[in-house]
Amino acid sequence: MTPMTNKPVRILILEHDPDDIELLQRELRKGGLEYVSTLVHESRTFEKELKDYNPDIILADYTIPGFDGVAAFNIKKESCPDTPFIIVSGTIGEENAVELIKAGVTDYVLKENLFTVVTKIKRALKEATEYREKKEQAKMLENYARELERSNQELEEFAYIASHDLQEPLRMIGSFLQLLQQKYEAKLDKEANEYIYFAVDGAARMKCLIDDLLNYSRINRDQTIKPVDLSVIINEVLSNLSASINETGALITISNAPVLNADPVQMLQLFQNLIGNAIRYRKEGTRPEINIQAWKEETHWLFAIKDNGIGIESQYSEKIFVIFQQLHGKAENKGTGIGLAIAKKIVVRHGGKIWFESAPGKGTTFYFTIKSENI
């Protein structure tokens, strides 16, 4: 019986000698194999039975007048490549047998050792079943991956459209709230002014969230790779963050900033998110100190951005790069929960990986790699 169906094994036997056929079938019965078989002895009927009979396994004589096991195997490879194929011969030499196995023949049986044929059939059927199962699993995983990619693309498209369409109404809300605050602040009591302040602050946070969502969804949409001087990029980042740098007195040192092939806009986002986080999550009463280093390795650049901030607990190592994950309470966190997800997506888009080392109260070092030759 076959391992998968528990039905008699369908054997296609390619043999021309009646005595050899009788000996083979006797061994199959003696070995307790439940089987049905079809006999052929030339190429035309062999090809026909491959299609019509759909065998579970093929037993082929090595030498047949006008047709042989090698020719049969080559035909079999075209029409049913996964069907096990065993050569049965009294004349095959060990060297020829090894060459056939290398070519893809499942096994061989010498006619003088015909008692081993059932064992070899069972083993071949078991291996074929396992191979088919692995092949089906691989195909299923491939389908899942394709479906996941499609879903992610749809989600990114939705995030892009939704974020883009929300910008204008949100801008109007923010503008009218500010106008309300400016025009009526003196006429309203303290509680009313606090409500307006909360609304203005909420609108500003929502704008940051929408901007980050747009940035996140754009990463896979467009990418322009060209030589980028990271010293120029980092200086632009520091200019963008000048208000928070001046407010906190942050000290930022750059040990090395190479020129590499990358998307300049995405490099700006990457360094701004990581440096901005290092400033934001500083220890209270401590001047932020941030060091940026880079090393050239065989196939990529390795970067490290080290700070002396509040640190990150190891339990967050899996969550930290997931979109909308905030590792600190909202009261102490002005972030959107998207910055590190953007950073990871940019790094992966550039053929690299990102990770961190940290301990609570002892600062954090973010490491990431960028391929030396992005195309």
Written account of the structure:
The structure is a single chain. This protein has helices at 18-30, 43-52, 69-79, 94-103, 117-184, 190-218, 230-240, 242-248, 264-280, 339-349, and strands spanning 9-14, 35-40, 57-61, 63-64, 67-68, 85-89, 107-110, 226-229, 251-254, 259-262, 289-296, 300-307, 354-358, 364-371. With 375 residues, it is α/β, with parallel strands linked by helices. The chain has three domains: 9-136, Rossmann fold, CATH 3.40.50.2300; 149-218; 226-371, Heat Shock Protein 90, CATH 3.30.565.10. Helix 5 runs antiparallel to helix 6 (190-218), helix 7 (230-240) crosses helix 9 (264-280) and helix 9 (264-280) packs antiparallel against helix 10. The protein starts with 8 loop residues before the first strand and ends with a strand. Pfam families: HATPase_c (PF02518), HisKA (PF00512), Response_reg (PF00072).
Entry summary:
The chain has 375 residues and is α/β, with parallel strands linked by helices. Helix content is 50%, strand content 19%. The protein has three domains: 9-136, Response regulator (Rossmann fold); 149-218; 226-371, 2-Layer Sandwich (Heat Shock Protein 90).
Give a topology summary.
Elements: E1 9-14, H1 18-30, E2 35-40, H2 43-52, E3 57-61, E4 63-64, E5 67-68, H3 69-79, E6 85-89, H4 94-103, E7 107-110, H5 117-184, H6 190-218, E8 226-229, H7 230-240, H8 242-248, E9 251-254, E10 259-262, H9 264-280, E11 289-296, E12 300-307, H10 339-349, E13 354-358, E14 364-371
Parallel strand pairs: 1-2, 1-3, 3-6, 6-7, 9-11
Antiparallel strand pairs: 4-5, 8-10, 11-12, 12-14, 13-14
